[in-house]
Amino acid sequence: MLVAALVAIIGLTDSAYLTVKHLRGDYVRCGDDCSAVLGSKYADVAGVPLAAIGAIAYFTVFVAAVLGALGQSIARRVVALIAIPMAVTSLWLVYLQAFIIHSFCRYCLLSAAACIALAALVLIDWLLRRRAR
């Protein structure tokens, strides 16, 4: 669970950076591809930056992962309940970048990698616990 907490911090930092840039209307310095993705209609949901939703999810996963590492079994379930939908959503967003927007944002890909890593850690944790029984 501590590795999951570390991955969540990486995702939180990335998402918080993008959220601040989005809310301030600042240019994200990573090229035209980033601008195409971050300026697309998919960059926010009902006026809320998608990165802000990600930051909240990463923060929740971080707190739950730390609690899980301290022995709170319900916290492990919370990590799983959030990490799996995050990974599925990330796969959808990578699909949008590849086939709809035709541009990739490095920051978005970092977030997708973090989400997939979190889902993989949940799966590994589940398999190890299952095997121990």
Could you describe the 3D structure shown?
This protein is mainly alpha-helical and about 130 residues long. It has a single domain (about 1-130), classed as de novo design (two linked rop proteins), CATH 1.20.1440. Helix content is about 80%, strand content about 5%. The protein is built from 5 helices and 2 strands. It has a two-stranded antiparallel sheet. The radius of gyration is 16 Å and the shape is elongated. The model has no long low-confidence stretch (mean pLDDT about 95).
Topology:
Elements lengths: L1 H23 L7 H7 L5 E2 L2 E2 H20 L3 H29 L4 H27 L1
Antiparallel strand pairs: 1-2
Helix pairs in contact: 1-3, 1-5, 3-4, 4-5
Features:
de novo design (two linked rop proteins), elongated, 133 residues, mainly alpha
Indicate the structural class. mainly alpha
User: Got a strand count?
Assistant: 2
Describe the strand arrangement of the main beta sheet, using strand numbers.
1-2
CATH architecture: Up-down Bundle
Q: CATH topology, anyone?
A: de novo design (two linked rop proteins)
Mean pLDDT: 95
| Residue share in β-strands | under 5%
Overview in brief:
The protein is mainly alpha-helical. It contains 5 helices and 2 strands; from the N terminus they run H-H-E-E-H-H-H.
